[in-house]
Structures are given as structure tokens and as C-alpha cells.
Amino acid sequence: MKKRIPFFAGNWKMNKGPSETERFVKELATAIVGDEAVFGAVKANEIEIGVFPPFVSLERAKSAIESANALISLGAQNMHWEDSGAFTGEVSGTMIKETGCQYVILGHSERRHIFGETDDMIEMKMRKAIALGIKPVLCVGETLEERDKGMTESVVEGQLKEAFKALGTPQTFEIGIVIAYEPVWAIGTGRKASDEDAQRVCAFIRSFLESNFDSHVAQAVRILYGGSVKPDNAMGLMSQQDIDGALIGGASLDVSSFIGIIKNGM
Ligand code: PEP
């Protein structure tokens, strides 16, 4: 029995505007509220389910969650580190907080690789999110080239060091920081890391936390795996000692596959 509460987080990427979001949340809430035998664990706070819609859909998601009275956490997929200013096209942490977000995904590989986000930017976002009381879901992971060169651990360690460089104390983690190991080559490709490889890297992340913070932090922080998680591969991943849930892209866009992952993984 794992000590940490499993977290199944759906990263919708650039999918689902407000109307589709409302429909999805209602359907998901009905499934959760209606299936007491399976989802009683959600009510008992033994499992956490979260959705991460696009910015414009956050408010609608929040009101749909509230009116269904469902225990579904809400997060954004990104944020800026400043509260306001001349940053055309950006959305601040204060804004996503006002829409009801408890979480924010930071450092997703699509942000790093398509939009050129640097470790420095991610570090500033981490500090801001924590200062605002928003829990970061920090994504780390290596490219295929880095993996083939045997650099997985050193890349992940470098990303962690940068993200936490100004967050030096174990108290920082009390907010509930989540780390997601997402190998870049596994995201959206249908090619998931093997259970053993995913476990090895998640254990490595936990050992990083132990040596850079303390053993309490290492034992408390939830580490998710992300990259082509599907209902039929969730069980193997979730039975690994150091994997506490999944960050799910494509398969979280459909209620039945999202639910399938949760049921098979819990
Ligand atoms: C993701 O976007 O974080 C992700 C893991 O995507 P997918 O599940 O589609 O690989």
C-alpha cells in the first residue's frame, strides 16, 4: 500500500473550449458520483482526479465542478511569472488563481521545446506559483537523443536543480508540489516508457529530493509518470513503488478512457 494519494491528472493541451469543457466535466462528475463502489475512494480522499483545460475554459470547468458537487481538482497548463504587465498573449498566476485553479503544469515539454521555455523561466514560474499558493506540477524528462546517449538521469537532475534552485528549504514542499516524469519521446507517440524504466527514473527523482531536501520531502512528494498512458497500460505503471499517478494527455480527452485509466490504475 502506497502512502501517497494517487493523482490522475488530465492535460487537455489545446483541446476543448468552454462548452465542450462543461459537457466533459458533467459526464466525468456523473461517472464519479454515480459509481460509489469504484469512486468512493475519491470521496474518501484516497484518490485525486484533476483536469487541466485551456485558460478560456477554466471558469466553465470550475462552475461545472461546483454544480455537480464533484471532487475534481482544477489546474492550468501554464502561467506567467509576473502578476500583470506588457506580456501580450500571456496569463498570470494571479489570474488562474482567481479562476479557481489549485494546480498549474510548469515546464511541460511542449512549452520547453515548441515555445522555447528555458529552465530560468520555469524556475521563475515555480517561485511565483508557490508564492501564490498554486501547486506546481513540474514536468521533467529527456529527449530520445538524450536517452540514447544514456543521459536520462543527468538531464532530469539538471532540470530539477534549475527548477528548485531558489527554493532551498523542505518547507517549500508543504504546498504539495507534484513532479511529473515525462520522457519527451513518449508524449503523444503511443510509445510509453517501460514500467521498469519509468520506475527507475521516478525513484531517481525521489532520491534527488532526499539528497537535496530531506527524507520527509522525498516520501511525501507525488511523482507522476506521463507519456502515452492508456487504460491498458495504467495498471503496470501504477503498481510501481515510486509512481504515484499519471499525467495523461490524449487519453484524458475522452471520459471513458480517462475513467478506464483511473479504474485500472487505482
Ligand atoms: C502530456 O501531454 O503530458 C502527455 C503525457 O501526453 P500523452 O498522454 O498524450 O502522451
Briefly say what this structure is.
This protein has helices spanning 18-34, 36-43, 58-68, 93-98, 109-113, 119-132, 144-148, 152-163, 195-212, 215-220, 234-238, 255-265, and strands at residues 7-11, 48-52, 73-76, 103-106, 135-140, 178-181, 222-226, 245-248. With 266 residues, the chain is of the alpha/beta class. The protein has one domain: TIM Barrel (Alpha-Beta Barrel), CATH 3.20.20.70.
Structure description:
The chain is built from 12 helices and 8 strands. It is α/β, with parallel strands linked by helices. It has a single domain, classed as Aldolase class I (TIM Barrel, Alpha-Beta Barrel), CATH 3.20.20. Helix 1 (18-34) runs parallel beside helix 3.
How many discrete domains? 1
Number of helices: 12
What is the name of the CATH superfamily? Aldolase class I
Sheet with most strands: 8 strands, parallel, barrel
Distance between the termini: 11 Å
Strand order of the largest sheet: 1-2-3-4-5-6-7-8
Mean pLDDT: 95
Using DSSP, what is the number of strands?
8
- The CATH architecture would be Alpha-Beta Barrel
- Class by SSE composition: alpha/beta
Helix proportion: 40-55%
Succession of helices and strands? EHHEHEHEHHEHHEHHEHEH
Shape by Cα distribution: globular
Catalytic activity: D-glyceraldehyde 3-phosphate = dihydroxyacetone phosphate
Pathway: Carbohydrate degradation; glycolysis; D-glyceraldehyde 3-phosphate from glycerone phosphate: step 1/1; Carbohydrate biosynthesis; gluconeogenesis
Family: Belongs to the triosephosphate isomerase family.
Protein name: Triosephosphate isomerase
